[in-house]
């Protein structure tokens, strides 16, 4: 169950709710640029460089202009996942989020009911495995062994609510087509690739790759079945592909989404549970 909880949490927090299209289906578009090295232009290209810099600044401003501001968020969704060792489908997840404060996740399966619950704060992660009667208590800085993701609370929050992660000003390798703009940018730990729709600069796809080549770790996210909800752009279908030593494939279908509603975040550790 520890693996199941980790995969569900990983799947949920690794997808953002950023993209929105009223008619576009989930896409499998690949990134046209895989060379992530920087190339120096000659002095003769100064005019082209200036034009490219202007375009990049405008693109980033429009992309950041789509950031979602909120106080509370909740969602219900179905999750299927596959690894090299196992497959599970029809998992139900319930998420609640209070900005900068709490991420709450409940996981249930058919017939059995709720099997796991987790609550994440900026300082800690707590989870209970109801099937095996185990509680996991972690300082957030030491939660990587449970989640297997090197993200802090703010990054998890951005992933859930749909704001792009590891988006920096160091944009390069820009490729423009009539429908999609692709580009690469760098952060301290990762190289990130983005596909954004050319008409309104919302995400179609993103990929985060660890700069440490020995890890060979990456997460690729694809967004589809877009809907508008209270002026929020929201993708109700998501596909996640995680690669490290092995692979994990996760499909998610959101069937209920709410913003700015009163929420509770119940979490108790029953007596008799062992603690790890």
Sheet/helix structural class = alpha+beta
CATH architecture: Clam
Q: How many domains make up the coordinates?
A: 1
CATH class: Mainly Beta
Query: What is the number of helices?
Result: 4
Protein name: DUF4292 domain-containing protein
InterPro entries: DUF4292
Organism: Chitinophaga pinensis (strain ATCC 43595 / DSM 2588 / LMG 13176 / NBRC 15968 / NCIMB 11800 / UQM 2034)
Overview of this protein structure:
There is one protein chain. This protein has helices at 2-13, 46-64, 144-147, 153-161; strands at residues 72-83, 87-98, 102-109, 113-120, 124-129, 134-139, 172-176, 180-186, 190-197, 203-210, 218-229, 232-243, 247-259, 274-275. A hairpin with a 7-residue loop joins strand 10 (203-210) and strand 11 (218-229). The two termini are 13 Å apart. A 14-stranded mixed beta sheet has the order 7-8-9-10-11-12-13-1-2-3-4-5-6-14. It is globular and about 70 Å long. It is 16% helix and 43% strand. It is an alpha+beta fold. It has one domain (2-27, 46-256): Clam (outer membrane lipoprotein receptor (LolB), chain A). The protein has four helices and 14 strands. It comes from Chitinophaga pinensis (strain ATCC 43595 / DSM 2588 / LMG 13176 / NBRC 15968 / NCIMB 11800 / UQM 2034). InterPro entries: DUF4292. It holds the Pfam family DUF4292.
